[in-house]
Design brief:
It is a single chain. 89% of the residues lie in helices and 0% in strands. The longest helix has 52 residues. α1 runs parallel beside α8 and α2 runs antiparallel to α4. The model has no long low-confidence stretch (mean pLDDT 83). With 280 residues, the chain is mainly alpha-helical. It contains 9 helices and no strands. It has 2 domains: 152 residues; 72 residues.
Length: 280
């Protein structure tokens, strides 16, 4: 009887080892394929850049793309500011309407859960709208001297409208986040924190229970992984664009700095927490 059990255990271990070997081979093949693709793309971009440089084709493409971006930038600035402000305002008003319904029927647990989920929407939209509009505002200030050469009068007039909308977006985003946090505190009185406080996230997390902290930790880890992967893709894209259009290397330096910061902070914090858990 014991021999049969031993044989089954040996067979199970052999299957596990074979599966691990196949998985290792698959990983190595995928890694080599990725290196081959990156190498091929680098060779192609370098060859095409050298071949097209004599004809001036790349310079013409660069001029056309640059002119198109500069022409569209004022319109995009206004659209993003207007749409972002409207969307986050509407989403908060929906939360306010649902909150009034909940106050009239406080025992409705489904409505309570729906409102807590819905409160995430204005928070997300306000942050995304603020970051996107700030990005466009900085772009407008950076290329302002070039807009006169390609933009028409209507586009130039939209710049003032865009900056006015940017200020509205900035104020609306701050107000909506304050109101959303206030509503969340009414639903969960144990929550603490003020949006205007620079230590808001730290204070807010300290007032969360263990389940909520675990959710935040998992979300943070996923955000870290996504950021690392997307930064790598952006880094490769920046390299190819620099090879093709002879752009400035500042974009590669900026993305590389973010990658180093993310990776270093993650590894140092993991080591610190590991030492802390061992000492307890």
């Amino acid at each position: 009887m014991w021999r049969r059990k031993m044989m089954k255990r040996v067979e199970s271990n052999m299957k596990t080892k074979k599966a691990e070997q196949k998985s290792t081979v698959k990983i190595v093949v995928s890694f080599l394929a990725l290196l081959a693709v990156c190498f091929t793309a680098g060779v192609f971009s370098g060859y095409y850049s050298a071949a097209a440089e004599d004809t001036g084709a790349l310079e013409k493409v660069k001029e056309v793309v640059q002119a198109g971006c500069l022409t569209a930038l004022p319109y995009l600035f206004v659209i993003v500011g207007a749409v972002g402000t409207v969307m986050m305002t509407v989403s908060y008003l929906r939360c306010g309407s649902m909150y009034r319904k909940l106050m009239a029927d406080k025992d409705n647990e489904k409505l309570w859960d729906r409102l807590e989920d819905l409160l995430n929407v204005p928070a997300i939209l306000s942050n995304v709208a603020l970051v996107a509009d700030t990005c466009l505002a900085l772009c407008m200030m950076a290329v302002g001297d070039q807009l006169d050469k390609v933009a028409d009068d209507r586009a130039l007039n939209l710049i003032a409208v865009g900056f006015a909308l940017y200020l509205i977006t900035l104020v609306a985003s701050l107000i909506i986040q304050i109101l959303a946090i206030r509503m969340e505190k009414k639903l969960n009185p144990e929550k603490r924190g003020n949006v205007l406080d620079i230590h808001f996230r730290k204070v807010w997390m300290a007032s969360c229970d263990e389940a909520q902290k675990l959710i935040a930790y998992k979300a943070g880890y996923k955000a870290f992984n996504v950021t690392m992967a997307s930064s790598g893709i952006v880094l490769i894209a920046c390299f190819l664009l620099i090879m093709l259009f002879h752009l400035d290397v500042l974009s590669i330096i900026a993305v590389s700095a973010l990658l180093i910061i993310h990776l270093t902070v993650f590894m140092l914090e993991s080591a610190r927490l590991g030492k802390k858990s061992l000492s307890q």
